Amino acid sequence: MKIESNHNNSKNLLTIENNREVNKSFKNTLFDEYENIDSDFSYEKIVNTDLSDISSIYKNSEDIKRAKSLKIATMFSDNEILSKALYEKVFEKSLSNQHEYLFNIIQDKIVFLSSDSTTIEDLLQKSVKQRIKLDNTSKDLEQISPKYMNTILTYMNSISFINSMSNSYKSLSSIYDKDDKYSILYNNHYLEYQFLIARFKEYDKQIEKLRQL
User: By CB neighbour count within 10 A (0-12 exposed, 13-18 middle, 19+ buried), where does 23 fall?
Assistant: First the structure.
């Protein structure tokens, strides 16, 4: 009986240890899933590189733009899960779409912080109308100094702020006819925020499970 008990205990301990290794591997995969694709643009490397140092680390112009876009994505929030979710969202986009996507969400935040309007809907309408007036050459993130960029990105950085943006865009899209250009734009922005929120919730849920083990 004692031998059987020891055997069962050993078996149980081995099972627990295997589960821990699986979960550890899962967590590493969750936060490092792009490490093997391109280590030059890995989340870990980008997070630990200052925005002002990127031009000296990366050589060609496309790599510099890509690294800056990813760095700005990680700067949007000091919440690691939201930071990772936005990094991945930007990573999946083409270089030109990365820039436009980041410009849009940063412009939303800048308008929010600099306006005296009383409702988020008013602010987002103002933000979208300003962006429509700009041509692509005017939508240049490099015109914003790294110091100001860091301030504007990390202020109001909670997931509740992102939720407010999403819900407000959804509300705005219903005001116009579904074929109206503003309705389409508002709906597209709503979906972009929803994708980001979904990725955040997915990571948050998975990490919470790991914490409970």
Answer: middle
